[in-house]
Specification:
globular
Length: 295
């Protein structure tokens, strides 16, 4: 049996910042992630000013030192476009960001394990990659599709009946017209699609649409091509891209804390964000949850 002060489940932005905050608060921290790194996710890859400020406050700003600064949002609908100035924000690949933040958590003193699923036992202990672990507090930050709270009374989801599904992909920069430092956001029937150029040289496409609209279009790629319209230069690049999905988006937990449990990030609640706010909420709640768990 291993014993830790804080077990953090999930190494996305919320979980890694929870681990950093808890470790810097003096706790013995174990950060467990079921996926192998590096990994891509269906994500807008944009950070709000709040996200950047939270990273800086925890001394983790190096993770985004080479991020693409965002200076404008180009909003398109019904054949019209408007460019809106943006004071703060940045874009970076989730594969880069998650791996870097996990490394910073390790440098802060947390033990980091990837490819490490977590299962909860009836006595409150957890199996972490085959090791029995007892934690004084668990921070659950395993996202919209995590299962760490399955079967725990009172923590079920309330999902909006009007929720859209999320999906995204990385495509070559030549595939979509998208200027450096600009978020391109297209509002279409049934949802919206965004595109942003990343420092790695690819364009990240992230969209949210009602499932029926996606089915009627013929799938995520076809829906995104229609939504982005004239901004798409190479439709075949979108059709052959590796699209990733997310469950219905707008939802919240019936509760976000209980004896020995604090929930953070998307695992606690999700409201369809706009151009980076979602990452900001995840990071700020993760940092707060980690500090609370350490206390």
């Amino acid at each position: 049996m291993s014993e830790v002060d804080v077990l953090v489940i999930g190494a996305g932005p919320a979980g890694t910042l929870a681990a950093i905050a808890a470790a810097r608060g003096g706790a013995r921290v174990l950060l467990a992630e079921r996926a192998a790194f590096p990994r891509q996710k269906a994500c807008g890859c944009c950070l709000s000013g709040e996200a950047l400020a939270t990273l800086a406050s925890l001394g983790a700003g190096a993770a985004v030192a080479d991020a693409m600064p965002i200076g404008a949002v180009l909003l398109a609908a019904d054949g019209h476009e408007a460019s809106i100035a943006r004071r703060a924000g940045a874009a970076i690949s989730r594969a880069w960001l998650d791996a870097r933040l996990a490394a910073i958590a390790g440098e802060a003193g947390a033990e980091v394990r990837t490819s490490c699923p977590v299962a909860r036992h009836a006595d409150g202990t957890r199996d972490v990659g085959g090791t029995a672990v007892r934690a004084r507090c668990a921070v659950v930050a395993d996202g919209l599709s995590g299962h760490a709270l399955d079967g725990v009374p009172g923590f079920g989801w309330r999902v909006s009946a009007r929720s859209r599904m999320g999906f995204g992909a990385l495509v070559p920069a030549s595939a979509v017209r998208c200027g450096a430092g600009e978020i391109r956001m297209h509002v279409a029937r049934g949802g919206y699609a965004g595109a942003v150029l990343l420092p790695c040289g690819q364009v990240d496409i992230a969209a949210a649409a009602v499932p029926a609209a996606v089915r009627d279009a013929g799938g995520p790629a076809a829906w995104a091509i229609a939504a982005l319209g004239g901004a798409v230069r190479e439709p075949d690049a979108l059709l052959t891209a590796a699209w990733r999905g997310a469950p219905t988006l707008t939802r919240r937990r019936r509760r976000i804390a209980g004896p020995g449990i604090v929930v953070a990030g998307d695992a606690a609640a999700y409201v369809e964000p706009f151009t980076g706010e979602g990452m900001g909420w995840a990071m700020s709640t993760g940092a707060a949850a980690g500090a609370l768990a350490a206390d």
